[in-house]
Structure formats: C-alpha cells, structure tokens
Amino acid sequence: MTFPERAKPHFKPANLKNRAQVDSWRVNWQKAPVLSRPSINTVCSEKSQPIFTTTDHSVETKKDVAVDQTQNQYRLVSSAHSAILEMLLTCPHDEMIGEDQESKLIKQVYENIFAFMPKYTRFTILTDKLAVDTVKDLLTKYERNSPELTQIIVAEDNSANISIWAEDAYVCNFNPEKNVRYLTTPIIFPRYADSMIATTVSNDYNEKQFETTPLKVHPTSLIFQGGNTLIGDDFFMVGKDYLMNTIQFIKEHQSIAVPKGETEKDVAIKCYKTYLDTTRRLIFPGTADERPCPNQITVPFLDYDKDTLDGKQYRNEVLYFGNGRGAEKVWEPLFHIDMFITLLGRNKETNKYQVLVASPKLAIQTLGWDKEKARFAYAMQLSFDEIAKQLEDEGFEVDRMPLPMVYYDSEEDNTRYWYFTTYNNCLVQIPLEDNETVNGIKVEKKVWLPQYGYGDWKDLEKTDKQATEIFEKYGFTVQPMGDFHPFTYNLGALHCIKKYLWRSVPSN
Fold it and tell me: Where are the alpha helices (DSSP H) in 1-142?
C-alpha cells in the first residue's frame, strides 16, 4: 500500500466543535473562574444574566470530604461490564439538520446507533427545537420512539450551543445505599454549554418513565472529564493530565484543604476516590513526570517542497494535534485515555484484566506505509509504549491496537492537520455471565466499532479489518458503525458521543 501524497477528504470540516476546543473566555484553565451552572434552559431564557461566578469552595470542600468519607459510597457506572441499559446522547441542530457532508456523516452515525444498539437499550436525548423532529424521525424509523425506550429533553433556545460530546462534562456514579445516580461534575470545564448538560438533564429527567433511580448533580472540587476516565470491574482509571491539573489547581486556588503532613497529590488522590468511586482501586495512566508528551505545534511544511494542490503549495502543518499548548505540560499522548485504551475484561485462565493500548507503529506496519512520509517520528510511539508498560506493571495483560495517523489538508488556511483514527474509542459490552438476558434478549459480548477506510483513506480498510480481528480474538462480536473521520478529526469518536447512565448491574 502507498501513503497518499495529498488527501482531499470526502468531508469538509464545518460545524463540529473540536473536543479540545475551549470557549472564548478561557485563555487557559489556570485562569478559569469556578463554574456556577444554571441549566441550559435558564441561561437561554435569561441571556442577560452573568455566565460565570467565582466561588471559594475551600470551606465547603473540607466539610464535604469528611461527610463523604464517613457516610457516602459511590461506584462509577462501568465502561465495559454488564448490559448497556441506558445511554445519554446530545444532538444539536448543527449536526442533525446540517446539509454539509460532515453533518450528513455525523447524522448517519446517530442513525447507526439507533439501528444497531440492543433493543433493550434506552436513550435519554438532549436536543433543541430545530433538531427535535429529526431526532424523533430517526427514533420512529428504528422503533425506539416509545416512552419506555426514549425520553427527549429539549433546550428552550436553539443557541444553547451544546456539542455532540456527551461523554466529557461529568461522570456517572451510583450511591447504592441511597439508590441514587449522580452526574458528578468537575470544578471547571472548558465548554460552557456542555458544562450545563448535567444540570439540565437532571432537572428534566423522569426516572418514573424508565422505572429507574433518580439522577442528580454532584459537584466536586476536582478536575476531570468523562472521556479521561475508564471503569473496569475492580479498578478505575483517570488520565494523569487531570491529576496533575488538580494538584496545580489546589496549589493556586486552595480549593481543597491540605492537612499537615500531606501533599496536594495525596489530597487529590484521596478526593478522586472519595467523590468518584470509594470501592475500586485507582490508576492514573500517563508517562513519567520527567517525560511529558509533546505539545501541539504548527511548523513550516517539513518536506514535499514540490507537492501542490490546485497549484497551491502548503505552508504549514500541525503536529501533536489536541495536546497541550505553550507552557502547559501533558502526560497523555492523545488528549483522553478513551482514545487509546480499551477494556476487554478478565482472562478466565489467569484472572488478569486485559486491555488494548494503541500503537501507531502497528498501523504503519499493517498498512505498509513509509515511516517518514507517515510522520512516524511524530506519532509518539514511545509514549504509547510507556503507558502500555505502566499497565503491565499494574498487573494488566496488554495487547496492542493499530492507531493510524492521517491528515486533513485545509484549503482555508493552507495547513495540513495530522490526527489519529482511533479504534480504541468504541462501545464495549461484557456480560456478567454467559447466560445474562434483559427482557428475554441475550446480552452479547459485543463491540461497536468506528471505521475509517473511506475516501482518500481507503487503505484504512486494512486496519478496519485488523481491529475487528483483534476484538474477535477476545471473543467479541463486532458491529461496524460507519465513517468516523469527521469525529476523529475533532479528537473524538464513538465512545465520546454518549454517556452510559445505567447498566444491568450499574456499579459493575
């Protein structure tokens, strides 16, 4: 196979908000005010109200941590284990009714979700007035429009500007003693509209409709995002970047009290366990403190001096797309851990937990690409290898998943943008036992998998096939979910556009 000299993709980036994008107020997270989050509907109906307020959470946090340690237990809803009973989706009108090719491809993915998810999976959908009819039509087409299967929450104003990234602005955990679920939120979040999703959904959520438990908001004084957490059976992972950010935030804002004899790191780890999951062990995937990953950079076009498109020579290219910028340090090679780690369940013979870690090198080998042209030197292979070794040292069995690095040539700014096409960012369902059923339907060991062998990247059909075979090797049935280039170009994929709200055993 040959590496393409130019890519004029079959889609043109248009409306989709980049997953790492920040709202205009946010120069960097260190200067961000603490969020006070009214609902989307409140903000939309009261446009003149101030959006942010700065609050001192230190006294409140001291009290809350003590209370949680003695009275409350929390368990996160798993990323992989037991039947997927309920998912949250956010469906803004830009993506659902847009006529550009990017929007059509995105809408097709949502259609595939409704078509291919199990019939027992319920959907809670946040949308707006312009998109609600399109959403209802798709639900009707796939016989998911009954109140027992779907509830739709409609923002009152179409300018709410929520994104499709339903995974990120919260985690979902469960208090078994109180029989209450929570959308647990961080102290700051870069996309303001998305930071209000938890409040809006919890305010309008009807647990009686689904005959399930209440859904409430639980604010914390920690920095995290849902896409940077993965939850197994007896462990959960939080990407190291947010641990380091929380430590710095505590130092600068005194947001959490640090007892004498303890460090900010000690307190941060204790609070992650206290507020997110009080029963599982906690792991922070990332490179060593002294070996941060490269930051995003824009450089003059490195070669192909004579390579032009429509008579125009490309001036710049963006490398390490989505990583930190300027003086900001990052210890994760690809934005969020759900982009490069997948949970597979336990090996029945060794009882070790199995994971897949992404490998750009494996993709290049599979595709037969020239390493130099494929920018292998900028694919951060050593960082991915280091995290794979870290997980092995933690007792995991680690296998590798191909991670092609491809590019989009932008004619608007004459720049080439390199991005990863991730197979790790999929949906995983592992039955609790071989004969598990829901409503008489057998719960399959199954993966819903993004694909990338489209347009000028037709070569990626080979890694599409390889990814499928890797999952099948571990006993999964694989459901292809269509073209995900518009998503990965914006630093997300399938796992990023949903939030698991309920599983057949919600805390497993």
Answer: 40-45, 58-71, 93-97, 101-116, 132-141
Q: CB of 223 within 8 A of CB of 249?
A: yes
Query: CA angle, 274 as apex, 271 and 275 as ends, to 5°?
Result: 85
For 298-317, what is each residue's pLDDT tens digit? Answer: 988 765 544 544 455 667 89
- Tell me what percent of the chain is helix, strand and coil, each rounded to the nearest 5: 30, 25, 45
Residue 173 burial class via C-beta count within 10 angstroms: exposed 0-12, middle 13-18, buried 19 and up: buried
Structure confidence by residue, pLDDT tens digits, 171-209 = 999 998 888 999 999 999 988 889 999 999 999 988 888
Q: Which residues contact 114 (CB under 8 A, 6 or more apart)?
A: 123, 138, 139, 141, 142, 144
Q: 116 and 481 in contact (C-beta within 8 Å)? A: yes
Q: Calculate ∠ Cα 15-16-21, nearest 5°.
A: 115
Q: Are 183 and 172 in contact (CB under 8 A)?
A: yes
Task: Give the residue ranges of DSSP H helices in 283-400.
Answer: 360-367, 381-393
The one-letter amino acid code at 165 reads W
Full-prediction pTM beyond 0.85?
yes
Q: Please classify residue 435 by burial: count the beta carbons closer than 10 Å to its beta carbon, then call 0-12 exposed, 13-18 middle and 19+ buried.
A: exposed
